[in-house]
Amino acid sequence: MNKIIGGRTAYIDEFPHQVSVLYREHHMCGGSILTNNYVLTSATCIMYDLVVVTANLRIFTGTNDRLQRDFTGQYHNVALIIYNPLYSPRLFWHNDLAILKLETPIIYTRYCKNIELPFKIIRPCMKLDTCGWAHESSMTTRYLQKIEMKVLSQSNCYDYLISFTALNPIPVHTQACAKTEHQTISATLGDGGSGMVSNKFKTIVGVISIMFVNKADTIVFTDVHFYKDWIRNTISQ
Q: Domain 115-225 is classified in which CATH homologous superfamily?
């Protein structure tokens, strides 16, 4: 399971948009609240198991403790999975976005609210935060973990992408790469679908897509700015 390694425990009011996407009551990946009815995640996360159906999915939000059952946590069933129309499981790293429509609206609190879409394009060396519920063992961690990452240049990112997708290179304008400051800190699969967040602008800049086995401190994320029109059209319906 993909997970954050070497991060520190995060308070939920630092990431009130963050949700745990649950498959048959087990944490599968992260997601971000767009509105009280819609959550953004990665298509790869939802397609991890080909038999995933909406009846088996729900989201948990409002707490940094995935085992917490008190008044701050909220469960919401998923009514509909909306994949980006250009997404293909065969080329899973392309257009890797999905939006979950919820059966019931999220009740906003200081611990649980939406995050805005970006209004600035990604720049090299931009610092972003991400978070997730896992650690270096095979078990998910109880408390939300966060790490800071720095956006790489397009040329450096392209070098990583070519090594992974030599036959089907990722369009660089739709993807970006980020790296942790230290090699002992990394994000891996259970954090797929989590947002890459600009704390400076309080916006979601990307969604975690790919982790490299031989470069655990580097991830590829989908550039949300490129997909803003599709996202806005989808959540306005």
A: Trypsin-like serine proteases (2.40.10.10)
